[in-house]
């Protein structure tokens, strides 16, 4: 019997740890320490940049300091996003055996990305996919997504705008004028929207339930169960937090994954420990 595990952190807020846990989740799945897992979390006040981005090019660093926001580099590609408690972040880690007949990246962006799209459509939103990885409602972006096929697992995650502070979002993120012109708009806040502005009769619990049902059906799980992070996931996350995601070296300087050889050895030791 295949089961989908669902985990949520009730007290959100530390972006460094939350992003460290994203990698820990993918690692734990790749080591067969956990079942396929869908995760939800929120950050209090943070900008998350993609692995390949330069912080100074994507983020208004003076404004970031003014609002006392964290800056964290995630282990996946894609663009910069602003997180506050009006944002719902989601991720799913599944076995890489699911992509037997197509490439792992194609599987993620043809199949796993249907999870949030189907979830929002089930709630009555007119949801579409644009630019491979942007989820759009009423022609406005509500979620960006990114993925990784590293660590022997398929990992997909995104940030959903529910009731985010759009003034902060538009002030802290730098968006190229070319992107805005291509979209036919003059400011970042006019090409994104909050779901609760479209329908204020739904809540976070409705969206989480829709996500869970969507992935259960999409990936043909027999059942769903709710869990807390296990000991090894927390151990991996704490290690990644201490040695990588809390470090300015990682967050600002785009240090290569390959620079963390000692960290890799420690991660492998945790994975192989029985």
Describe the structure.
The two termini are 24 Å apart. A hairpin with a 4-residue loop joins strand 9 and strand 10. The chain has 274 residues and is of the alpha/beta class. The relative contact order is 0.19. The strands form 2 sheets. Strands 7-8-9-10-6-2-1-11 form an 8-stranded mixed beta sheet, with helices on both faces. It has a 3-stranded mixed beta sheet with strand order 4-3-5, sandwiched between helices.
Specify the structural class: alpha/beta
Distance between the termini: 24 Å
How would you state the average pLDDT, rounded?
A: 91
SSE order, one letter for each helix or strand = EHEEHHEEEHHEEEEHHHHEHHH
Q: For the largest sheet, list the strands in their spatial order.
A: 7-8-9-10-6-2-1-11
What is the structure about, briefly put?
This protein is an alpha/beta fold. It has helices at 15-30, 55-58, 61-66, 104-112, 114-122, 166-172, 177-183, 195-198, 204-218, 231-245, 248-253, 261-272; strands spanning 3-8, 37-41, 45-49, 70-73, 81-84, 87-95, 127-130, 134-137, 140-148, 153-161, 223-227. The chain is globular.
How are the SSEs placed, and which strands pair?
Elements (H helix, E strand, L loop, with lengths): L2 E6 L6 H16 L6 E5 L3 E5 L5 H4 L2 H6 L3 E4 L7 E4 L2 E9 L8 H9 L1 H9 L4 E4 L3 E4 L2 E9 L4 E9 L4 H7 L4 H7 L11 H4 L5 H15 L4 E5 L3 H15 L2 H6 L7 H12 L2
Helix pairs in contact: 1-10, 5-9, 10-12
Features:
single chain, 274 residues, alpha/beta, eight-stranded mixed β-sheet, three-stranded mixed β-sheet, globular
């Amino acid at each position: 019997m295949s089961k989908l595990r669902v985990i949520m952190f009730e007290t959100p807020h530390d972006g460094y740890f939350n992003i460290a846990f994203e990698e820990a989740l993918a690692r734990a799945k790749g080591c067969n320490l956990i079942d396929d897992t869908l995760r939800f979390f929120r950050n209090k006040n943070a900008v998350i940049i993609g692995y390949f981005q330069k912080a100074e090019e994507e983020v208004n660093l003076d404004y970031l300091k003014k609002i006392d926001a964290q800056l964290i580099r995630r282990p996946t590609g894609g663009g910069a996003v602003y997180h506050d408690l009006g944002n719902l972040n989601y991720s799913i880690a599944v076995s890489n055996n699911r992509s037997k007949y197509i490439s792992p990246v194609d599987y993620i962006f043809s199949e796993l990305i249907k999870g949030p799209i189907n979830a929002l459509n089930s709630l009555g939103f007119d949801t579409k996919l644009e630019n491979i990885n942007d989820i759009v409602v009423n022609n406005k972006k509500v979620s960006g997504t990114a993925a990784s096929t590293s660590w022997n697992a398929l990992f997909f995650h995104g940030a959903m705008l529910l009731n985010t502070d759009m003034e902060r979002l538009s002030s802290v993120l730098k968006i190229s004028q070319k992107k805005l012109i291509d979209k036919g708009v003059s400011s970042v806040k006019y090409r994104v929207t909050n779901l609760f502005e479209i329908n204020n009769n739904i809540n976070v619990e409705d969206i989480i339930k829709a996500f869970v049902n969507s992935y259960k059906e999409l990936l043909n799980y027999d059942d769903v169960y709710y869990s807390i992070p296990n000991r090894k996931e927390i151990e991996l996350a704490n290690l990644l937090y201490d040695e990588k995601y809390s470090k300015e070296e990682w967050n600002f300087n785009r240090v290569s994954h390959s620079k963390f050889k000692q960290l890799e050895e420690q991660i492998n030791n945790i994975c192989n420990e029985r």
